[in-house]
Design a protein that fits this description.
The chain is of the alpha+beta class. The protein has 16 helices and 37 strands. It comes from Microvirga mediterraneensis.
Length: about 650
């Protein structure tokens, strides 16, 4: 076994690798950016070393700095995790050139599978079916537009390099092709340093099914069954499960063998995933699946495979990298029960899943048999705008699919996150969705069911506002009591306390609030039946009912109320507060999150129509298009392309048409 390992990654996967490495008796070495100095993985590692400022290109993507730390610390190996440098052949080559074991496949295998067009040609020679489309090197926009026409809409534009939904656009009609191509190429360049794309036929009713493969350095290759990753949003996986619903033994055998042949074709070693798209219109059939790509690394969703096989894939990676032979054959492997994983993200489903950043004032997960939590953060940590906004992976394992989904829904419902908004409530509804439960889903399931899944603006939770206002009032009363006691040792007069003391009658007092950034007013209600006591009502909520909340979390700036997996921030409102920078709220297009202003498509004096594209902001490796809220004239451009902008910052000022 290797003596030590440097983890060239961060967050959840760094913590995951460290746990297994320590169990195997390995010395663990972390590298971190300035933004991650106080992170959980830095605390867990035996030693940690700073490699640069927050932007990944200046830290986690710096091969030279990572290799330098490995040499200085005497690291026997480097584990790349997933993302960042995990599929960069030059990183594997740099490790080999410096006598460091790369815990992953050979650089030649990474190169062979790293470019989707070349990979498709390679596996096609090995007899693996591929999706119809253009996979060549010619990148002229007019040529690609013509190929899309020949293939037939809808088509999928995909980055040749990389994965994770970056540089991918579905195009429904020819009129949208140019803008989609431009956006996909720009995002691919930013994410992978390679703007090239391919164009494929978009499969109707597609199921995204992948096969986990594993190979040692002695020619042995097996598959560890399949995972279904069809529940996606913006081509990024949301919930993954194993085994795939509706999978037949015949199709599992056919897909598994195809994946093994793909791995053999490139001399693969270690953990890898062969991804297929299946036409699910008539159920899963062995003659209707196609190779998409091979991920030459560990996958985010590997825990569901571990759950149904009882294997530790990270341990197997270390053993394969040490030169050991696989301790089992294909015939030794079997599926045990069903496992489902949900990706808990710092994002707001009520605002089109915009990334959400900030301090985690509270973070609690359900613990128990059948539940696994993989996370890289803890309460008190910050979710920054620099990296993927994943908070945790919540995994459930049960005897049946229904049992696993029930466990996952309960775990998500009892997850407490205060600070950044999360998709916890959305994920819970997804687990409970009738069509998904019945196995009637494909990659478009989420888009077709957004309203029922709680996506988009939701009614204000009046009960949560009442609880938050009550907590603020109690906090203020306690503050004033303490101030009064400090002024005098004499008992305080009830007349001097702002606690609703009165002799008789029923009255209410307005309480000005800021709720999730909006200015509102609740009512503090007093009753002579309970002298000195009060309750708070808001909207049509009954001030005397017995409603409950999941958690009440106090922060210096307000109170977070968690109810039914949904978060409401209630803050005191200062009536004398003036927002000088954003006084012209009605006419400003603002940055929806902290990020980089990539492009501005209008100039002062331009007339724009409602829904017209105005600008693009990039945050957490994804592009977000800003559109005109109404017909208007552009009065001012308040920020230049390339600038880092804060959430809520004015970007474009519009003037309503007269």
């Amino acid at each position: 076994m290797l003596e030590s390992v440097l983890i060239a990654n961060r967050g959840e996967i760094a913590c995951r690798i460290i746990r297994t490495a320590k169990r195997l008796g390995m010395r663990t070495i972390a590298v971190y950016s300035e933004a991650d100095a106080d992170s959980l993985f830095v605390q867990m590692a035996d030693e940690a070393h700073l490699i640069g400022p927050p932007p990944a290109r200046e830290s986690y993507l710096r091969i030279d700095r990572i290799i330098d730390v490995a040499k200085r610390t005497g690291a026997a190996s480097i584990h790349p995790g997933y993302g960042f440098l995990s599929e960069r052949a030059e990183f594997a080559e740099a490790c080999a050139a410096n006598g460091i074991v790369f815990v992953g496949p050979p650089a030649s295998a990474i190169k062979a599978m790293g470019l989707k067009d070349a990979a498709k040609a390679l596996v096609q020679q090995a007899g693996v079916p591929v999706v119809p489309g253009y996979h060549g090197s010619k990148q002229d926009p007019d040529f690609l537009r013509q190929k899309a026409y020949e293939i037939g809409y809808p088509v999928l534009i995909k980055a040749v390099a990389g994965g994770g939904g970056k540089g991918m656009r579905r195009v429904e009609k020819a009129a949208d092709f140019d803008a989609a191509l431009e956006s996909a190429q720009r995002e691919a360049q930013n994410a992978f340093g390679d703007p090239r794309v391919l164009v494929e036929k978009y499969i109707l009713s597609p199921r995204h099914i992948e096969i986990q493969v594993f190979a040692d350095g002695h020619g042995n290759v097996v598959h560890l069954f399949e995972r279904d990753c069809s529940l996606q949003r913006r081509h990024q996986k949301v919930i993954e499960e194993a085994p795939a619903p509706g999978m037949t033994p015949e199709m599992r055998q056919t897909m598994g063998q195809a994946a093994v042949e793909a791995a053999r074709a490139v001399g693969y070693v270690g953990a890898g995933t062969v991804e297929f798209i299946a036409d699910g219109r008539e159920g899963l059939r062995p003659d209707r699946f196609y190779f998409m790509e091979m991920n030459t690394r560990l996958q985010v969703e590997h825990p569901v495979t571990e759950a149904i096989t009882g294997l530790d894939l990270v341990e197997l990676q270390f053993r394969a990298a040490s030169g050991e032979t696989l301790p089992f054959t294909q015939e030794d492997l079997a599926i045990d029960g069903h496992a489902v994983e949900a990706r808990l993200y710092a994002e707001d489903p009520e605002k089109e899943f915009l990334p959400s950043t900030g301090k985690l004032w509270a973070l609690e997960f359900l613990e128990g048999e059948g539940i696994r939590i993989d996370t890289g953060v803890e309460a008190g940590a910050d979710v920054t705008p620099y990296y993927d906004p994943m908070i945790a992976k919540v995994i459930a394992h049960g005897a049946t699919r229904e049992e696993a989904l029930d466990q996952l829904a309960e775990a998500l419902g009892r997850t407490i996150v205060a600070g950044p908004k999360t998709n916890a409530a959305f994920l819970k509804k997804l687990c409970e969705a009738e069509g998904f439960r019945a196995g009637q889903f494909d990659t478009g399931f989420i888009d077709r069911n957004l309203a029922s899944l709680g996506v988009g603006p939701q009614p204000l939770d009046e009960v949560a506002v009442s609880f938050g206002a009550s907590a603020l009032i109690s906090r203020e009363i306690e503050r004033l009591r303490m101030a009064e006691l400090q002024k005098s040792d004499e008992p305080s007069s009830p007349w001097s306390m702002p606690d609703g003391f009165q002799l008789l009658g029923l009255r209410s007092v307005g309480v000005p609030l800021r709720v999730d950034g909006e200015r509102l007013e609740a009512r503090e209600v007093f009753s002579h039946e309970h002298p000195g006591a009060s309750t708070v009502a808001f909207g049509s909520s009954d001030p005397w009912d017995d409603a409950q909340v999941d958690q009440e979390v106090e922060a210096p700036h307000g109170v977070y109320i968690i109810r039914n997996g949904r978060q409401t921030l209630v803050q005191p409102y200062d009536p004398f507060e003036v927002d000088l920078e954003h006084m012209d709220e009605g006419g400003s297009v603002k940055a929806p999150m902290h990020g980089k202003l990539i492009a501005v498509f209008v100039q002062p004096g331009d007339r724009v129509e409602k829904g017209q594209r105005l600008a693009i902001v990039e945050a957490m490796k994804m592009e977000h298009v800003l559109v005109a809220p109404s017909d208007a004239e552009v009065a001012e451009i308040a920020a230049e392309p390339g600038a880092q902008v804060a959430e809520g910052a004015r970007l474009i000022v519009l003037k309503a048409e007269e």
